[in-house]
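Model it.
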Amino acid sequence: MFEKSTWIRLPRNVVVGHGVLEQTGDAVAELHLSGVPLVVTSPTPKSVAGDRIVDALAAQGECPEVVVVETASFAEIERVIDVAREVDPGYLVGVGGGKAIDIAKMAAADGDLGFVSVPTAASHDGIVSGRGSVPEGDTRHSVAADPPLAVVADTEILAEAPWRLTTAGCADIISNYTAVRDWQLAYRLQNVEYSEYAAALSQMTAEMLVENADSIKSGLEESAWVVVKALVSSGVAMSIAGSSRPASGAEHLFSHQLDRLAPGAALHGHQVGVGSIITAYLQDGDRGEWQKIRDALERIGAPTTATELNIDDETILEALTGAHAIRDRYTILGDGIEEAAAREAATVTGVI
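Modeled.
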């Protein structure tokens, strides 16, 4: 008897384009959410978009409450949860980059409330995924949550965000290449649950950015359009898979280990981009895949070397040899690689 089942949670409304911030109220109204909205934002995104979101939601008849977060931490998540318990909102709206959106997402999950994502930077696929990332001490935790009910991504605002944030988002998506390969490897060798549909969508998303790398330019709104569509597709692939597997393999383990060894040295997306170059070499040897990834990152203007990450060579090697122990996830790293192998991979690919 066939007994397989799955439950896929996807955003119901995804609004992307020029000037769509003003449509936030309409996007939320279609969800039939009731009650006072709680807007979670941080200082700069508040002035860029948060105040306008408050006005747009107030026009729907409910005056939003606002909480401004300063840092990404479990303490701030708890503070927002406390505010939510006091306010008793109908839903939460995260306005900003990764910090505000991840905090709002996890606070909403704690209270079993709806969540709306309004990104002000296209820096990572967390704007639509069902996971949040929170640093704690010398490590970073990936926490499960529900994906947003709606995403409102105004390309006019995203195009004005610092370019390094956009290149980090691009690198995060391009790293899907190696994440999918690791997922396939885990499926074949460890019988890990695998979705061909999610894997194909994730890989197609990475290919879309690689093929359009030359047209992704700073300050160009069309570039913001391409990047945010890719981020949405990547988040949807994770929702279909029911895990982060379509977008997280050895390259992410490498990045998480770098967070422990050199916290704050580089952006997450840039770290996984460099990690993807090395991972592709470990997966395929010198058959061209890692060169394709490196060249796409270079054309976009994302880092491809340890120096460009502002991380020394020995820390890169230490991260490579210790990344396998970050979490129980089978990748090309297996039970770990020797320093000599790590040095060869990092040297051949030009990372060190």
